[in-house]
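Sample A.
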Amino acid sequence: MSEDSTIALRAAIRDKVAAAGTSFYWAMRLLPEPRREAMYAIYAFCREVDDIADEEAPDGEKRAALDAWRREIDAIFAGRSKRPLGRVLAEDVARFRLRREDFLALIDGMEMDAGLPIQGPSLEELDLYCDRVASAVGRLSVRAFGVASEDADRVAHHLGRALQLTNILRDLAEDAARDRLYLPRDYLHEAGITATAPQAVLRHPHLAQACDRLADLAERHFREARAAMASCPRRPMRPARAMGAVYHAQLHKLRQRGWLRLDEPVKLPKSTKLWLALRHGLI
């Protein structure tokens, strides 16, 4: 792929991330340009495989599409990538020493969503899911940030889980509409909820108890992530601090709203996201 083609593709990826309106975009703006462009490419890959898992298609087609991406990851690391996005990622893999197993873990996580809908997983299953769909992305990210240490991987481990659990609590009603329920059955049973059918669980009078337990677990991961960040160089970790601050504020707003009005969306204003990203990313 020519240099002009690479520049054009990276510009298209950047525009797509900006148009998504995600807080991720503002946090990544804190990085130097080469690292920022690598993060946009990682985000584009995440969107590609996530869209496969979420599309209305037979399971076999979804698994075939995910397998095609597994082959593309192998091709990237063998120096013979075929897809335009794969060729861009190959540059970032070489430059920032991104790891094959982290790309594959994310695909494995998407495969968990591509089959029968997840409903009331065990805590162990939920933790594995969070590791694959979120913490694996974190492990790619910290290397793109410029930190490839055990402490940085601890940040990825805990912050990825904190962010994913916050997403789960934010999207309870949306997931239930797709017949999915990520609240762990361990917490459901503690609350006296034996059902795992999503709509039945969301109507249960003890739902708040299970949600609060999961929110407490997210809070613990936020704390552990901050502790791990303290052992890392400050400047490269600015995007992680910014993302943590935005999502922690989101979790706080969810807890303030409570778990009775799940059809009432909880969103941070763009101005608040930007302020948090700047406040926690520039200090």
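Sample B, a different protein:
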Amino acid sequence: MLINGAGRTTLDEVGVAAGVGKSQLYHYFHDKDDLIEAVIRHQTDRILASDGPHLGPLDSWDGWEEWGRQIVAHQSRGGCVGGCPLGSLANELSETSEHARAVLAASLQRWERVLTAALHRMRTNGLLTRSADPESLATATLATLQGGLLLCKVRRTTEPLQVAVDAVIANLRRFAEAE
């Protein structure tokens, strides 16, 4: 396990942890930035794949409720350790690596686009008012979720994450068509 974080971990340490030589690392990765980019892309794919079953049905209120339950349950099962891997990498690398910051921004935008598409479907299906702005709502959703995950990680309790999820859904419901 690497304990120095991505920014301070050397390729030699990665090689030792992976049980491979530096030359083998360079066979797959041009340099450390390339390796970090691969980690960010892998984490993004992993998040979207694990959330996938819950992101797909985000075109209903029941889907949003289930999404929230699953996120809180996931953090609870993990003992509230780790938070969001993208959020953690962003916190560590955004000020020290422009390359990593740009890759992280693209990864978070990818996640945001999935949320935006779900909110567009809800608006098209008449569950959200025409005045609802799916792009802004997706940004608010992701920002609130990231804050909830960070507080969950720091406080080692899912309570702030549950508050964040509830706030996301309450914010979205402000734009609900009369049922």
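Observation for Sample B: The radius of gyration is 18 Å.
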